[in-house]
Design a protein that fits this description.
Blueprint: H1 4-9, H2 30-36, H3 42-46, H4 49-63, E1 67-69, H5 76-81, E2 85-88, E3 92-95, H6 101-105, H7 112-115, H8 117-129, E4 135-141, H9 143-152, H10 160-168, H11 170-194, E5 198-203, H12 214-232, E6 238-242, H13 249-256, E7 260-262, H14 269-276, E8 282-286, H15 288-293, H16 295-309, E9 314-318, H17 328-341
Parallel strand pairs: 1-4, 4-5, 5-6, 6-7, 7-8, 8-9
Antiparallel strand pairs: 2-3
Helix pairs in contact: 2-4, 4-8, 9-10, 9-11, 10-11, 11-12, 14-16, 16-17
Length: 345
């Protein structure tokens, strides 16, 4: 049976672009909110395999996307290593921040597989619930992005604390990145062993890294993860999503060893088609604001993306996650547009 998503990542010709949407399982769906209300907090939902599998499958059932992405969170890694992590309704993640080498010494990657066993069970349940033509994507955060939360203690707009800490404590910060790399490699290998057929590494805050530190904080940690995964499962494609790095994308692709790259909305369609798509398959990059707005402007923008990327391997997606206020009807319409694209050509 043809698997459009995996065939595209392998560079094969397909009748239409496959699609999935970042954050396709989430608060904009009433069926998600129903299950979320039954859980004792967000992490409880992530660590309850039956519920996590259910919400992973919801967008497949509603929109017939070509890939499901595991329902979890990038912050299960620091939680597994022993850092206190909580999700406050209406506020977001809250962590006891890493402030010293003493705090760093308390982190233990060796706990990863045991602590995250429920996530691997979720992967197994989802894979068993999917037909062969729908792919299952596992994921993690990239070390830099995960480290920003670990040091800032939550979300941040200026990244001053993490950058100041990393610059003033370079040896300790390198150790932290090593710990996150070690834990992430174990985590992603176990996802593959449980049934994930592709992986995505989210470096959401890569654009905050100073150019002089980009190699040490973004490129090298990600490359180490990719190399370890390729040694373990060479046929499992890896998508890198380094948000906001613009002109550094080709270098990021070549030097990390990823198989495909996710594009944010700052990358022009001409740049993507002419300079990035010839290097590897691309994924993206409709701005979620168009999906939130819907209507003729969304349809026009979606057709522009499809037309521009139709000359090479391409997975239709958003430039970032679905906004929680997005009407599901808008997502249904966007899915229809992509599914009908091949029929209209």
């Amino acid at each position: 049976m043809t698997n459009l998503f995996l065939d595209t990542l392998a560079g094969k010709a397909v009748p239409r672009p496959p699609f999935w949407f970042m954050r396709q399982a989430g608060r904009y769906l009433p069926e998600y909110r129903e299950i979320r209300a039954q859980a004792n907090g967000f992490l409880d939902l992530c660590y309850t395999p039956e519920r996590a599998a259910r919400v992973t499958l919801q967008p497949i059932e509603r929109f017939q996307a070509d890939a499901a992405i595991l329902f979890s969170d990038i912050l299960v890694i620091p939680h597994a290593m022993g850092q206190t992590v909580d999700f406050v309704e209406g506020t977001g993640p809250k962590l006891d921040p890493i402030q010293s080498s003493r705090d760093l010494a308390l982190l233990d990657p060796g706990k990863t597989l045991e602590k995250l066993a429920p996530v691997f069970e979720t992967v197994r349940l989802v894979r068993a619930g999917l037909p062969d033509d729908i792919a299952l994507i596992g994921f993690s955060g990239a070390p830099w992005t995960v480290a920003t939360y670990m040091i800032e203690g939550g979300s941040t707009r200026d990244f001053n604390t993490v950058k100041s800490w990393a610059i003033s404590n370079r040896r300790s910060f390198a150790i932290m990145l090593d710990l996150v790399v070690e834990s992430t490699v174990m985590y992603l290998k176990a996802q593959v062993d449980a049934g994930a057929q592709a992986l995505q590494i989210f470096d959401t805050w890569a654009s905050a890294v100073p150019a002089s530190d980009f190699e040490d904080w973004v490129i090298n940690p990600t490359a180490r993860i990719v190399l370890a995964l390729k040694s373990h499962a060479p046929d499992v494609p890896i998508i890198g999503f380094a948000r906001g790095i613009g002109s550094r994308l080709p270098d990021y692709i070549h030097r990390t060893g990823i198989d495909a790259v996710g594009l944010d909305s700052s990358v022009s369609l001409a740049e993507a088609a002419n300079n990035i798509q010839p290097i590897c398959p691309v994924q993206g990059n409709l701005d979620p604001a168009y999906l939130l707005s819907g209507g003729v402007e969304m349809e026009r923008a979606a057709h522009e993306v499809l037309e521009a990327m139709s000359g090479g391997p391409f997975v239709f997606n958003l430039a970032h996650g679905i906004n929680k206020d997005t009407p599901p009807a808008h997502v249904e319409r966007l899915a229809e547009i992509v599914k009908n694209w091949g029929l209209s050509k």
